Each structure stands twice: as structure tokens, then as C-alpha cells.
Amino acid sequence: MLAQVISFLVMPVITRLHTPDSLGHYQFFTTLALVISPFVTGSLHFAIKSSPSKYRALKNLKLAMQFSLACSLLFLIFVPVVMLILAGTSLEWFSVYTPLLVLFVYLTANYQFAMAYLTNIKNYGMQSTYSVSKSLISNFLKLTFSFFSRTGFSLIFALILTELFQVLWLLKNSHKSLLRSFFRLKLSVFTKQLSSLRRYPTYVTMTSVLGILMNWFPILVTGMFYGPEHVGVLGLAFMVVNTPVYPFISALRSVCFGELARDFSFSRCVSVYRKSFLVAFFPSVLGVLVLGSYGEELFSIIFGSEWRISGNYAFICFFPIALSLLLSPIYSTLNHFFGFQRLFFLINLLVFIIGLTLTSTFGYLGFDFEWFLICFAITMSINHLLLFVISLSLAFGKISLKRL
């Protein structure tokens, strides 16, 4: 939370130093990095976290670092091909960032591995220190570089330097032994170890990528059809509605899970879910009212007049976020206790394909950007409602069968 607050407080200065176009370059870069990252990590940070011993965690850490290096080198080979493909397209402006994207994702992957290792050995204090220091260094470098160059390069370069500092700092006591593992790499051992953890690079990775795309694909579609300027304006709207709300969504989910972990009776579910809904109802309604009535004025005052329209985009984007706050604590716990994971994945995949197709069609046909955004908001809202209704129906069906 503190790391997010630091970024949020610095943002009004960044928006006055940068145009929507330059911030759009940065936002498109970070979103694409977010999507590619699970492929480079192979989701092996989850394997590191859940290792049964410190020795096993260290072995998985070395395996993960070897995996990310191999994937990054593979991506790097295809960079010239990608740059050639992007030439002459609407995304030609992004081609110069592709080598930096591979470097950044590789560094990010290793940072995730190191943080996962700290989780496994229960060194939470050091984790918190790294998280806050990363936010401080990143925002300091962004501001410093922005005074010299108000382009997307300055913000991206700040990100890469921050990630490099953090990775070196995290591995300062053991990086020599870890680096030596690359030179001792035996393909047969590497393949065998990776095979034993194959569920992470396959099933977990695909689930992670889908979850990321469900929330962020409008940024990528916007970059393709509306250009970096719209990406920057939409990215700010996403930041404002996502940053303060998602910690509350996560907290409510955790509370519901904790309250029902030992007593999952029907009456207990009704009681817990009713309280969760009531707690979420006030901020949901307040967000809609404030953004609907004063969104553009607030954005103009806080971030500068150039960003006024972001307030309207934030209002549109807030509806699926509000529904997630209200309904996801219910359907996520029902999913966990009754095992609807495969069905939920298929529903999310179907809704994502429909949403991506519709928004891409709107963009390709040159629809007004607000209609494009409304299409996204409606699609994601329907997804939350579907998951809620289906989970309730299936859960009540299973409860009725047990009673019979």
C-alpha cells in the first residue's frame, strides 16, 4: 500500500511534465511487459514460494533463473523480426522499445524470483523494505530523468535502472553462486527438473496471462487503433480506479475466505456474504457518484487540465471495478470451496475473446473512443455477473444434493 501511495503522490507531477503521448508510450510498454512476464518467469515464482524447504526453494530459484534466461534469449532472437513486422503499421512507434522490453521483463522475472524466495524463508521485513525502496527509487529516477527528457524513453529507462538496482541488491550475498549455476547447466538435469514443475509453465502461466489480459487488454487495443495519446489518458484513468480499489477487493476476499474456512455452513455463508456486500456497497456507490459528478473537474485539478477527459474514462471504467468489489468476494470463495476453477477459466476465456473481438472491431471501424471504452466496461461487467450467478447456482445445487 505504501509503495502504491508513493507512486500515486508522484503522478500529478509526472502528468505535468509529460504529455498523454509520452505517458502512453510508457503505459503501453509496462502493460505489454505485464502480459509477457508470465511466459518468461514460467510462473516458477509460485514454485519457489511453495517449496517445502529452503534447500528446495534455492534449487527452484536457480532453475527459474535459468528458465528466464533461456526464454529471454529466445525472445531476443525474434526482436528484429518483430521490429520488421511493426514497420509500416500503426504500432511502428513501439518498435524501438522492443529490445528494452525483453531486458526489462528479464530483470522483472528475476526480481519476482528473489522476492518469492524471501517469501519462502519468511523474510517479510526484507520484502517490505525492497518493495518500498523500489517505489522510491523508481519515482525518483522518473522525476529526475523527466526534467531532462520529457519522453517515454525517460520513464522506461528509469524502470529498467530501478529493476537492475533491485535485482543486484537482492542477490548481493549469493549472486556469484547463482551465476555459476548458468555455467554448470546440464540440459538433461534442467529438463528433468522443469518437467517435474511443468504445471507452472503451462496451466498456471496461462491462467495468469488470462487474468492480466482481462484487466489490461484495452490498453493494448487502444495502442493499436487509437495511438499512444489515448493510451496515456486511459492509463491514468485505470491507475486512479485500480490502485485504491484492488487492495480492498483483495482484503474482502481474504476476510471471506478466513471467515468461512472453518465453518462453511449455509447460514454462515449468508451472514458473511451479506456483510461483505454491505461493506463494499458504500465505496462502490460513492465512486460512481463522485466520478460521475466531478470526475473531469477532479482530474483537471489534480493532474492538470490536459488530463481532464481521463476523469470521464475513469467513470466508465469504474463500473466493472465496482461490480468486482461487490461480487468477487462471493464468487471467488465459492469457486475455491466447490472447485469451479476449470469452468471459471473457460468463462473468463470466452468473455475475453468476445471483449477483445468487440473492442478491436470498434477500434478498426474508427468508433469514438468513449464507445470503445463503454464496450469494454459492459463486457467486463457481464463477466462478473456471469461468474456470480453461475457460482451461486452451482453452489446451491451442490448444497441441495447434500441435504437430499
- What is the end-to-end distance? 47 Å
Q: State Rg.
A: 22 Å
Strand content range: under 5%
Mean model confidence by pLDDT: 87
Number of domains: 2
Uncertain parts: none
Summarize the structure.
The protein is mostly helical. Helices cover 87% and strands 0% of the residues.
Would you give an account of this structure?
This protein is mainly α and 404 residues long. The chain folds into two domains: 2-198, no CATH class; 216-403, no CATH class. Helices cover 87% and strands 0% of the residues. The protein has helices at 2-17, 20-41, 44-49, 54-86, 98-120, 124-148, 152-170, 175-183, 187-196, 200-225, 228-260, 266-303, 308-338, 341-364, 369-403. α4 runs antiparallel to α5 and α12 (266-303) packs antiparallel against α13.
Features of the shown structure:
2 domains; mainly alpha; 404 residues
How do the strands and helices of this protein lay out in sequence?
Blueprint: H1 2-17, H2 20-41, H3 44-49, H4 54-86, H5 98-120, H6 124-148, H7 152-170, H8 175-183, H9 187-196, H10 200-225, H11 228-260, H12 266-303, H13 308-338, H14 341-364, H15 369-403
